Amino acid sequence: MQIPPERLDQITNRFAELEARMASGTLEGDAFVQASRDYAELEPVAKIAAEVKGLREEIGGLEGMLSDPEMKKMAEDELSAIRQKLPDLERALSVALLPRDSADSKPAMLEIRAGTGGDEAALFAGDLYRMYERYASDNGWKVEAVSMNASEVGGFKEIVANVTGQGVFAKMKFESGVHRVQRVPATESGGRIHTSAATVAVLPEPDEVDVNIDVGDLKIDIYRASGAGGQHVNTTDSAVRITHLPSGIVVTQQDERSQHKNRAKAMQVLRARLYEKMRDEAQGAEAEARKAMVGSGDRSERIRTYNFPQGRVTDHRIGLTLHKLEEVLAGPGLPELIDALISEDEAKRLAALAD
Predict the structure, then answer these.
(1) Considering only CA atoms, which of 84, 78, 3 is closest in space to residue 46?
(2) Can you tell me the mean pLDDT for 97-108?
(3) Mean pLDDT of 99-120
(4) Looking at residue 239, what is its pLDDT?
(5) How many helices (H) and strands (E) does the chain have?
(6) Which of 15, 81, 183, 306 could form a disulfide with 46 if both were Cys (CB 3.0 to 4.6 A apart)?
(7) In three state form, how does the secondary structure of 204-240 look?
């Protein structure tokens, strides 16, 4: 997809204008913060645009040298090198100019729930959580558990965690859906392969200004915590259940000793779920744009299978199979899957723009 020359000029001129404003020393407060944000977002785009513009100008100059017998061979060689390099740069620029998801830069709420498969599903949910922990660590992100319901045999019936860092949601958003595992459980004496599943949801975590919650819309119940979670759980009325009446969303939190901390964590989860609901409604109104995405993001969609007997992982949305299951679950192999999903999404959105 070739970017018109006037669009390149627009990008480079806008960046030069921002540079001048930042260097002027006249910006203060919110104006400086906004200009800094705009500058940081535009800088990588402007850099590619400048390279594309420079190479196009070089082509024009070199083509003019082809009529000179002494310069023709050198010009042909340089033209060949530039024409090989330019399409990749132009595609990179097209990708950089794609409409951005406003949530891409946000942290994320990661929710993993054991599905069909009983104890084996809970163990698999634990495997997935550790996989994302390692992936987050490799990216320099921080993972903090918000709430968890541990299984008696290990793993989790449910775990919710907050993932913070640079570009978390942009990388993690295609992980939402049903993850299926096929393996022989340690407790299976007959060596039969069992199929279990866990559901993953990745929700962008909004700022408070993104979601306005009216206190009058909340029903808050305080009760005594119960179940696994330490010796303190039955001693105080510290557990919190918050019901958002307009949407019917219910969030419970009992992991902390403090009612105040449980309430804060419950509000954090509620805000993320309300933000997801708002985004779903907005995307529903833009159904055609949503179709261009990889997968629907529906939590009931089976997206990936981890087959232990064959040592493979298959992502069903893009038909990609990697025979490196242990490496994927250990964390280092996951980027190959995530990067392939992001590339496929970019390709589909570029194709949609070209139609």
Answers:
(1) 3
(2) 82
(3) 87
(4) 86
(5) 9, 11
(6) 15
(7) ECCCHHHCCCCHHHEEEEEECCCCCCCHHHHCCCCEE
